[in-house]
Design a protein that fits this description.
globular; 2 domains; 3-stranded antiparallel beta sheet; Enterobactin synthase component D; alpha+beta; Ribosomal Protein L22, Chain A; holo-[acyl-carrier-protein] synthase activity; transferase; magnesium ion binding; 4-PPantetheinyl_Trfase_dom_sf
Length: about 270
């Protein structure tokens, strides 16, 4: 029998897509996305063993999947498939082992790379940066977030602006009052950027960070400046850079946090 006959469910999962990083992101960033198949059977017993048999998923990762609530299983698998493909670009020798989770939910990656992953119900996006591209003596972590670009019907839904934006960010939002969809997009973009920053700084601060403890300032040329309003980081202990890109479907935000070197803190 052909593989298509014996393992049809494994073939339902698409190959990872390599996604361009934001134009002002570090050139060494590698991003991959895996879409959850729209017709995927909700019974993981149908397709999970096939992914393991095809060596696309490690058995230890499959064990994590089986312990998860059903609604999280497919997107977790998508994230691991995407992350493995991104790691393989820079460290193929490290791409065969399991990608497990820390106690704070971040992926446990080989020492050769820094990385982050973002999950939506229908897709997952992985970001990897090879550590050989980093400055010696610095502690560097990255973060990524993936969000659906809002569409017209989204403007009727309750806004999260007051939960996630600082007072100056709320004031700046008034510039979009004449265009509710553009205003909603700026809110979702701000959410994505703060999520990416949170993931990048979490290994250092190791605590819950409120959205209002990360301040964003969008410049006229489309860039964004990040300020950390954290009492434990008031003396330039960490430098954070963030970038974003928007296409027809997705908002993507990335962040790079560097500690251990002198910096401005933004």
């Amino acid at each position: 029998m052909s593989d298509a006959t014996t393992r049809p469910s494994a073939l339902a999962w698409p190959a990872p897509q390599f996604v361009p990083a934001p134009s002002d992101a570090p050139s060494a960033f590698t991003m991959t996305r895996v879409d959850v198949p729209a017709t995927l059977d909700p019974d993981t017993g149908i397709w999970l063993p096939a992914l393991v048999a095809d060596a696309r998923l490690h058995p230890d990762e499959a064990a994590l999947v089986e312990a998860m609530p059903p609604t999280r299983r497919a997107t977790f698998v998508a994230g691991r498939l995407a992350m493995r493909a991104a790691v393989a670009v820079h460290a193929p020798q490290d791409a065969t082992g399991p990608i497990l989770r820390t106690e704070r939910g971040a992926p446990v990656l080989p020492n050769s790379v820094a990385g982050s992953v973002s999950h939506k119900h229908d897709a997952a996006l992985a970001l990897v940066l090879p550590r050989r591209a980093l400055t010696a003596g610095a502690s560097v972590h990255v973060g990524v977030d993936l969000e659906h670009r809002p569409i017209a019907r989204d403007v009727t839904r309750p806004s999260i602006a007051r939960r996630i934006l600082t007072a100056p960010e709320l004031d700046a939002l008034s510039a979009f009052d004449a265009d509710p969809l553009a205003q909603r997009e700026r809110v979702i973009l701000s959410f994505a950027l703060k999520e990416a920053v949170y993931k990048a700084i979490d290994p250092t601060v190791r605590r819950y960070v409120r959205f209002t403890e990360v301040a964003l300032e969008f410049t006229a040329d489309g860039a964004v400046a990040v300020s950390l309003l954290l009492p434990e980081l008031l003396h330039g202990d960490m430098t954070v850079r963030a970038q974003y890109s928007i296409d027809d479907r997705w908002i993507v935000a990335t962040a790079l946090a560097t500690a251990g070197l002198s910096g401005s803190g933004t």
